[in-house]
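If you are new to this repository, start here. Below is one unmodified record pulled from the training split, so you can see the exact layout before writing a loader.
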Amino acid sequence: MTDHIRNFCIIAHVDHGKSTLADRLLQLTGAISEREMTEQVLDSMDLEREKGVTIKASAVRMYYTAQDNFKYEINLIDTPGHVDFGYEVSRALKACEGAVLVVDATQGIEAQTLANLYQALEADLAIIPVINKIDLPSARPDEVAEDIGSLLGVEPGSVIRISAKEGINVDQILEAIVRRVPPPVDVDDLPPRALIFDSHYDSYKGVIAYVRVFEGMIRSNETLRMFATRSDMKPVEIGIFVPGMKPVDSLGSGEVGYIATGLKTVHECRVGDTVTRAAAPAAEPLPGYRHPKPMVFAGIYPVEADDYTTLRESLEKLQLNDASLTYQPETSQALGFGFRAGFLGLFHMEIIQERIEREYLLDVLFTAPSVEYEVVMDDGSVVTVDSPAELPDPNKIVEVREPWMTIEIITPTEYYGPIMELVTKRRGIFKQQEYPAPHRVQLDFEIPLSEIIVDFFDLLKSRTKGYASLDYQFLEYRPDRLQKLEILVNGEAVDALAAIVHEKDAYHKGQRLITKLKELIPRQLYDVAVQAASGGRIISRANVKATRKDVLAKCYGGDITRKKKLLEKQKRGKKRLKMVGNVEIPQEAFMAVLKLEEE
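And here is the target side for that same chain:
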């Protein structure tokens, strides 16, 4: 029977206290002892703890004896709140019947709160609204309760008020889950169907799939089949999370657990796929999974050419844990061999970069992020281009289309002006505004994705003192007057510095980049010309004056080790330089493209 099972997730805006609440629930139900208690138990990645955000979804089982003295099995599926990880949220929601909506008592309803709430309502989940951080001096629980009440159409008095940090009223949430979240349907006699809502790679057990069983029984002694890839496997083990992994013999309908598949790559075990029995499979897979589509693209190159294979292996391993990362090999005459990788957003890209550097100790160089353009050629064909260097010959192009996003910004009303200015400066189009609460306004815009991927979020936060929040969705591809901006060093185009820009921005961007490169490119033994070209003509130029540097000049006599040290230092400096033709371009120059903020 499944009457005693409850599956729920916690949804919230980033930083509203989801992981802390999860810790308290684990403690209350005795799932972990006081001794094992650390901050953010479910965030096992170092990066997650450091940035204080949840990146990977995780699952855990707790047992709770309710006021009716009945013992319930409660499965918590933890979800990320950051906008780049919306797909992680969507599939975690598929595995639940209820959602605890956490809102910060000081911040109120934010963009992500709404985005995740609408997803939960679409998935038909029972919503339990909770106000967190009521212990803070700046908390406004009554105001926030009014806002939530009008948003969900419930009595403001019925909203649970807690402090996850202090443990105030957390037990009320468990009671509410037992009362308000419906139990899963009991269908143990049907052919098994289980949804994979996450996976990670274990070097001993292969890919470990986190599953929610919807129908039938999954047993450890049966051969199982994946629907999408049609691959069969005999599970290494089947188990539950308590929060550690604990093997069991079978998982019944409604239960959440894991299957250690023994498969070697995540491609054979896709997230969102359905697991069934190989002998008597179910007729069709579970509905509702779309493959995550990368929005931001960047080149990844090893600083040391010898690290290429290590980089490839590390990307393969990262892809095991993160199905949304895509990559393919590419070469650049400036940077050598590397990969073109696709990410969900800039934050996702930053995390992948940190994980490559930390977990695999690689020194890598990321090129400026770009988006995927659709190019209509004169013969009617449409080519997709995700790297500026691949843009075809301008004479053959009819039009270039770029991705546009709809963005929702929720902000206190006093920052209306600065936000309007920021968005319109970035080619944004104002659509409408709503007032979800007094003193807060929701502004809807349409804006090209290329304008928001680099520093838009930082600028938005700094102009609103951190109060504004942002959510974005893909809208459509639209044609515009876009062209390639090329940088020539000593007459040779440097493909890694190319960018696709709007016609009206080409001149300013070209000039700013040349000014920056003039400072960064080390002086050679001869003059070096740095030029920016766009639309078939040179639009800016600067000369790097000649020089010769003698590092041993100040060593007259004395100890040989001093000379060796200086020469060694010079050698190390040279190693960091990338050779282009015969002009050395330092790594900082490639980073400069990223940092061309509005000066």
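Two things worth knowing about this chain: The first strand starts at residue 5 and ends at 12. The domain at 484-492+503-592 is CATH 3.30.70.2570 (Alpha-Beta Plaits).
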